[in-house]
What does this fold into?
Amino acid sequence: MENFFQKAGITVLLVFISLQLFSTPPDTTRQDTKEGWTFGALPVVAYDTDRGFKYGGLVNFYNYGDGSTFPDYKHSIYMEISRTTKRSGINQLLFDSQHILPNHPVRFTVDLSYFTERSLDFYGFNGYNSRYKRAFTEEKNDDYISRMFYRYERELFHFSLHMQDYISDSDFKWLLGVEHFDHKLNPFDFEQYNEGTDSEDQLEDTTTLYELYDQWGLIPEKDKDGGRVNYLKSGIIYDSRDQEANPMQGVWSEVLLAGAPSILSNKKNTYLKMSAIHRQYFTLLPKELNLAVRLGYQGTIAGKSPFYMQSYLLSSFTQSVNVEGLGGSKSLRGINRNRIIGDDIVYGNLELRWKFLRKEIFNQHIYIALSTFGDAGTVIDPIEIDKSNIPDHINQEHFFSDDKDKLHSSAGIGLHFALNYNFVVAVDYGRALDRRDGSSGLYIGMNFLY
It folds into this structure.
């Protein structure tokens, strides 16, 4: 049944794209550029056994002005509202522009979001140091506990404002920003999940891994219900890409610092994180085939980050709804979401992208790209945990391993549909190469990964 809905979701997606390509009116008289405002819209259609049927819509407006910056836009407004039948939801407004100040091309990016996640993944800390036992979630297995054993609930309100600009006439940029996170965390609500569910599909209320971590003191008392974090962010960026949405050549590298100082009302936690990311793009066949590489490091260099902030991947710019990892659609595709959580992490992605179909239809620039990828990452500095409060009758081998974390890897393929180069619909399928990381993942969303 799940495969049926996944295939149905992709079918609806492709049909909608086809209709859009032939119905969008022309808005330019020149074949090599776009001018003025244009937009891409997409119904959000997906299915997951435990999150339910996802529905809603998104739209992205682009302004190209007189066309002199094409294929890069002057202004972008992205909006998404979606829900699932299991009461999770996304509400996001993202504005991005480098042309607000006519004589000062400072790039402003503003994000305002509210997310409700009723079944967010939680597998513990430090990658393979925390065991993932698939048997705990398989109903026909003798060790079965619940399909939701590795889940909990989160509500997140997020606001960010980032500014960046080139330094003189070089390819270097500076970045300054502020960011606000407000988390509300709770154990998985079995009663709410069972509302409106057929009796044979209802789940028995049981203790989840998140609740066990709370009982054992592995999650600090001050963090278990969530909290507010206010960031100051700064960084240096080198950007020589020929185009942002899917560069054929160039380098995009950055070093970022994100701090939560006490002067910004960070009463529970004060800390400083650093992120270093190198992305490079190689043209293998002009206009058709390119190789994209990403290598990243992120770590806590001062203070102690609350566990609920450890999964967010820092970046100078992203159009993704919510960038978390390691594991999942925006980091290691095919590996369980947030499977690898540590104080310091490293990760890498290698992706080959082939634009096998390129067309001009009613003055709209269209291409379809096929990709193949490999993703990998690991913890290099674990989160310190104290197991002394775990009761003696608990078999710790079910939950922990004394081995150091090793490389988590996945591989897969993707299909991308691009309208006017910037509106990119992505369908990625990845498989974990180790059963301890899950099995596979199918993701329908927006944009290339990096």
In short: Residues 1-31 have pLDDT under 50 and may be disordered.
